Amino acid sequence: MIACVAVVGHQNNPLYLQSFTEADDALKLHHIVHCSLDVIDERVNNPKRSVLTLNETFLGLLFPTESYKVFGYLTNTKVKFIMVTTDLDVKDADVRSFFRRFHAAYVDAVSNPFHVPGKKIASRIFAGRVSGIVKTFALGTNG
Amino acid sequence: MANYLAQFQAIKSSSDRLVVAVEDVSDLWPSVKEGFEARLPLKKACLNNKTRNPVYVENLPAEFILTTDARLRSRFPQEQYLFWFREPYATVVLVSCEDLDEFKTILKPRLKLIVQNEEREWFIVYVSKAHPSNDQATKMAKKVYARLEVDFSSKRRERCCKLDLNGADASFWEDFDSKIVESIRNTLERRVQFYEEEIRKMSEQRLMPVWNFCNFFILKESLAFMFEMAHLHEDSLREYDELELCYTETVNTPGKQRDFGGLEQGDDQAALLKPEFKPLSQIVQDDSFREFEFRQYLFACQSKLLFKLGRPVEVVARGYSFIISFSKTLALHEKFLPFCLREVWVITACLAIISSISSIYDGELAAPDIEKEFYRFQGDLYSLCRVKFMRLAYMIGYGVDIEKSSVNSASLSMLPWPKPAVWPSIPADASAEVLAKEKMILQANPRMKHFNIQRKPLPLEPSSLLREANRRRASLSVGNVSELLDVRPTDGSGLDGYQRFSPPSKIYASPMPRTYSGPVNFESSVSLDRPMRLSEIHVAAEHALNQTITDPDLLKSLSSLEEFEKKYMELTKGAADNYHHSWWRRHGVVLDGEIAALYFKNGNYDLAAKSYEKVCALYAGEGWQDLLAEVLPNLAECQKILSDEAGYLSSCVRLLSLENGLFLTKERQAFQSEVVHLAHSEMEHPVPLDVSSLITFSGNPGPPLELCDGDPGTLSVSVWSGFPDDITLESLNLTLMATFNADEGVKTINSSDAHILKPGRNVITLDVPPQKPGSYVLGVLTGQIGNLGFRSHSFSKGGPPDSDDFMSYEKPTRPVLKVLKPRPLVDIAAAVSSALLMNEIQWLGLIVKPIKYSLKGALLSIDTGPGLMIDESHMIEIDDHVKPMEDKVHADELDITKENAFSTVKFKLVLENGKVALPDWASDITTVLWFPVRAIDDRMAVAASADCPQRQSVVDGMRTIALKLEFGAFCNQIFERTIAVHFTDPFHVTTRVSDKCNDGTLLLQVMIHSQVKATLYLHDAWLHLQPGFVHVGKANGRPVSGFFPLVISPSSTAGILFSVCIESMPFGDQTELLQTQSILNIMYGISGDRTNGAHAPASLKSGSNDKLHFKVAIALQRPVLDPCVAVGFIPFSSDCLRVGQLVSMKWRVERLKDMEASNPSSSCNDEVLYEVDANPEIWMIAGRKRGHISLSNARGSRIEIIVTCMPLISGHVRPPHLGLPGLGDENISCNPAGPHLVCVLPPTLSSSYCTPA
Predict the structure, then answer these.
(1) DSSP codes joined into one string, B819-841
(2) Is B850 in contact with B1108 (CB distance < 8 Å)?
(3) pLDDT interval class at A99 (50, 70, 90)
(4) Whether the Cβ atoms of residue B818 and residue B706 lie closer than 8 Å to each other
């Protein structure tokens, strides 16, 4: 199950964060997303040490813990997409396609002329699309 | 083969280095042993690794063992084959022989026998005992050695070397070393091949039933061990890695049920760095090993090699992933393992790696990025350990002590509970402990957050522990869950679990478990079917854990709350410190927050505040406001306790500036009231408070305020307040920054009165004192709340303070104020350029023209220069002025436009102390001020001779008037100008004697030139003659009155003839008469417009018949009757003069009569003073213009005066005139009599630049 998805701006500021847990504990997901920026920073700053190639936007598994996994995706404009899932065996390909759709939704949202770049994404349509993508992902991995 | 396991282990532990066998044929070992063993360990041994590549081993340990030694003798062939790695890798044959025959007969056959074993790598050391002085023996030894070489060395390989006992030979030892290494290398290679072959064979059987992992393991580890002995650690490590892979495959083969292990005493302590922890023979299970122990064993071997290779970083990296994966494996077998063994194992494993690493790693061997990675892994280990430790502590009831922060919640609430087959039940005699735990739970007071902030604490459990524990109890069905709800979830964390399956109204219904409150009925209550209460679960878990844990340190750490805190702190600090050294800065800082929470709990507020500050800075820096909102109140509380007023205030401000949704209005009001309360209290060290995030400002939209240089103004600015309520400011200032020059510094402008800032937008007006020209942007907003100064640096872009805008600190480039460069703001000029009447009251017009600038309230100071005064009897008049351009356009409709040009609307102004105030209506339009002035000139006008008209000096009639206009809103602008006004007499009079009649009557022609731009009316004129002249016919000298009034238009001339005759009078009076003058009196009127020039004096009423009186002096000379000196101009030698050509002017001066008789006074002097007068614009004179020449007093004496001149312009010009100032004009006869002209031609054309055609 996807616990949380987030968009983080190029200055590591949160642009959008949506948790999908039932409990009122979004703060811990904030924490997880925030800390996973460490890993992205490390990979971006040490390109030769990581497997990341320059053309690859999908960062893969950022850090595994015993109870959840965090995946990352980095766009050319240094906007990061982060996904926290409690599903411990997800396929990379699924995550990859999830991020691609997430990215597309983001691009549409920020293409809105009324959106100020670098500001939080308040669009309800975007939120709806993201929930849709998350739902499809859950179906895809379960089915 | 598996039976050999024990033996294998024993052999492995006994042999740790390569063996070199010594075959001591001639009993030489005792004498060479020392020398041989000194060579050990072998230096720079070149060995081949598994892939046949040379590897240099720095120090290769080896051991010399005699072949007669028991260790080498008592081996069975079977063992030799299996444990080949311990067999000698080289054989050194020590021989000595000094007799050739003996060598041939005895030694050689024996040696042949020894070396026939093909598998051995051998070489012979011939030891010569011969003393160097003993030639015979030396020679013999050489012979024998030569023989030996012939017999045993081949071309392919040298197998002999010679050691001279009595003479040290360095080359021998090198030879010796290389031979040993060569042998070892060859043997190693052969054995590696052998093992590889065996392993390959065995691997082929892997899928067959005969497959036995133990056998495979022995072979593989033998090979690995051999590599290790040869210090080829890299190869050894590879063998272990392959072994691990192979084992994982074997274990994961489905079908076979194997014991996992981990059930023995002490298994909870990870043995992943202790290969010798358990003998392998104990963990054999059928044809393989128990996974629990064996995987740890493999890891231990690998890490040992990694340490030997100097790669502790890799140990940590591998260790972390091993622990994670092994923990997963443990989870699979959790049902069969002791309670929480998994958690305990992870804790001990992490701590074991950390402690071994920290003792080995000195932090210098790695590159910086590797080092960072190393610290990161260590941090990971610490943090993993910490999480598991917290989990254990939570289960035994120390959850009350764990901060419900986001980091703890993230790591604990998503981590599943242990899943033992059966949850431990409470031991029989634990009622006291249960009570104690109960008490602890009840006493634990969920700490109230500062500012009365109410937040639901974050969960620390994945699901309710109560439910989980009871569910896993064998005797209890899930259906009884409603009973659990009687227990109050005092730590708050269990709440989530309940809410999902119970009506929320019941949660707080019964705060105390009344049913089981007393110890009396407690014993009976521990029935099988009753669900356990939380306190009971804690006690049960504690007992179970005490059973599981064997590590005394860990037991101690869980024994009490204090010990727990100590360990918890140690682990958190360890994790944080390591993360700080790594790339994972955020992880480190977040853990600092946990440390801070602990410090806070222990009353160490200073350290707590420091750590909280770091966390807040991290969150604030990247805009993670949700997280910041959680930590910032804690920081504020610390600061309040520490009475760090500045910090506390800034924390309050930061809290206020967080997003609106993060706090309730009530809470935000609490923040504000704290700020206001502190601001109005007596602070010890008032520090300016930075409210940039809370109060922002911007200039008003639209063009910037424009001010002229030197003008003050008022600027209006929007200020956005982020306070939830109105806030009263004692003062409010803004700085302006010049955009053109950064060095100019900042100017502060003040808002005049106190303000109350409403939430949202406020418009503030500020007074701007005069600024330097340029454009200005807003700088900093400062102000005062109570005693507290504050400042704000942030600009809003016309919206409310934007919490998202944390990174946009760029300055707005739009200027709010433009101060224009100095430019003329007003111009004052004389309205009339033509001359005014001298000595009469005239209107002097001043055109005051504002240049796009209001002259409201302007004051004009007037200071007249010498010879000019303002007539105070008259008011000053002011008129509207229309541009003269219009005048010209409508020149045809002369009358009408003139009326319009100077409007008839006139205002009178009063001059006070030399100043006149301009009326308001005149502030924006061009006006003319008319002053009555009178120029005074005491000198009488003098008529000029028409023959040589004297140029009238303009300067004589010039008067100046200094003006100073003070204007602007604050009379700050000053305009100063001095205006020259030209005054003149109305007429210029020239006279000429037009005719001399024969009867001695002279016709005196008086020409009157009008000098003013006004029509003059001559009403009367009469000549008052000087003595010596009389009017003809005794008339009064008036022309016929019928001529008058005579009208003289501007710039025109009129003439009047007077006929006078010379009065006869005695000669002696002549000298007196010379001094007097005739006076021409003219009565005239003037009709002029003051806008054009001279006009009727202001004192006269317009239209009245008052006449003005003008007097002019006329010098009449009696004619020259008997000249005494004649001056003649001698014609030029050439006809024409040219410009630039030198010409000699000659005058001849001749005495006409004796001077002695006529003028005795000058007789003493026979010199005559001369002076050449020439127009300097026409003539350049070379030589003396003035001087004395000697001229004899005798009559008829003559002399020539020659002056060289050069004409400067062409045309008909007057030549220079020779005057004799010493003699009166009347005594001189001139030839020619009057002025005459000479012709000067233009200069000849210069042909020097012309080129011939």
Answers:
(1) EPPP---EEEEES--S-EETTSE
(2) no
(3) very high
(4) yes
CA distance B254 to B246: 14
Of B415, B500, B590, the CB nearest to A35: B590
Contacts for B520 with CB less than 8 Å, ≥ 6 apart: none
The answer to whether A35 contacts B583, with C-beta atoms less than 8 Å apart, is no
Alpha carbon distances (Å) from B411 to B390, B404, B557, B601, B847: 10, 11, 20, 21, 88
Token pair 């062939």 is found at B77
- CA count, 13 A, side-chain hemisphere, B916: 22
CATH number of the domain encompassing residue A91 = 3.30.450.70
Name the residue in chain A with its Cα closest to that of B583: A42
Cα A97–chain centre separation: 12
Q: What is the DSSP string of B228-271?
A: HHTT-HHHHHHHHHHHHHHHHHHHH-TT--------STTTTS--
Q: How many CA atoms lie within 13 A of B795 on its CB side?
A: 21
Instruction: Report yes or no: B1230 and B1122 within 8 Å, Cβ to Cβ.
Output: no
Looking at the complex, report in whole angstroms how far the Cα of residue B458 sits from the nearest Cα belonging to chain A.
6
Tokens of B219: 């072979």
Provide the 3-class DSSP secondary structure of residue B390: helix
Chain A positions touching B590 (Cβ under 8 A) are: 31, 34-35
Rounded to a whole number of angstroms, the distance from the CA of B626 to the nearest CA of chain A is: 7
- Mutation site, B804, B806, B808, interface A, largest A CB count within 10 A: B804
Burial class (CB in 10 A: 0-12, 13-18, 19+), B78: exposed
Helix runs in B264-311, H state only: 291-308
Let me know: does B839 contact B933? Beta carbons within 8 Å.
no
Whether residue A35 lies within 8 A of chain B, CB to CB, comes out as yes
pLDDT digits (tens, 9 = 90+) for B959-1013: 888 988 888 777 778 888 888 888 888 888 888 877 777 777 888 888 888 888 8
| Number of domains comprising chain A | 1
Residues in chain A: 143
Q: Please report the ipTM that was assigned to this predicted complex.
A: 0.93
- Long-range (24+ apart) CB contacts under 8 A made by B1073-1078 are B1073/B1026, B1073/B1027, B1073/B1028, B1073/B1118, B1074/B1224, B1076/B1026, B1076/B1027, B1076/B1028, B1077/B1026, B1077/B1113, B1077/B1114, B1077/B1115, B1077/B1116, B1078/B1023, B1078/B1024, B1078/B1025, B1078/B1026, B1078/B1029, B1078/B1113, B1078/B1114, B1078/B1115, B1078/B1116
* Range(s) of the domain holding residue A133: 1-139
User: How many CB atoms neighbour CB B1094 within 10 A?
Assistant: 29
Contact B400, B442 (CB under 8 A): no
Contacts of B761 (CB under 8 A, 6+ apart): B718, B719, B720, B800
CA A85 to CA A4: how far, in whole Å? 7
- Can you give the pTM of this predicted structure? 0.70
The answer to whether residue A25 neighbours chain B at the CB level (below 8 Å) is: yes
**With contact defined as beta carbons under 8 Å apart, do B410 and B595 qualify?**
no
Residues of chain B below pLDDT 50 = 476-527, 798-801, 803-811, 885-904, 1067-1070, 1073, 1157-1164
Q: Closest Cα of chain A to B584: distance in Å?
A: 5
For residue B197, give the H/E element and its range.
Answer: helix B170-203
Cα B483 to the center of its chain, rounded Å:
65
Q: Which residue pairs from B299-304 have beta carbons closer than 8 angstroms and sit at least 24 positions apart in sequence? A: B299/B272, B300/B271, B300/B272, B300/B273, B300/B274, B300/B275, B301/B224, B301/B240, B301/B275, B302/B237, B302/B240, B302/B241, B302/B244, B303/B272, B303/B273, B303/B356, B304/B273, B304/B275
φ and ψ at residue A56, rounded to 5 degrees: -90, 125
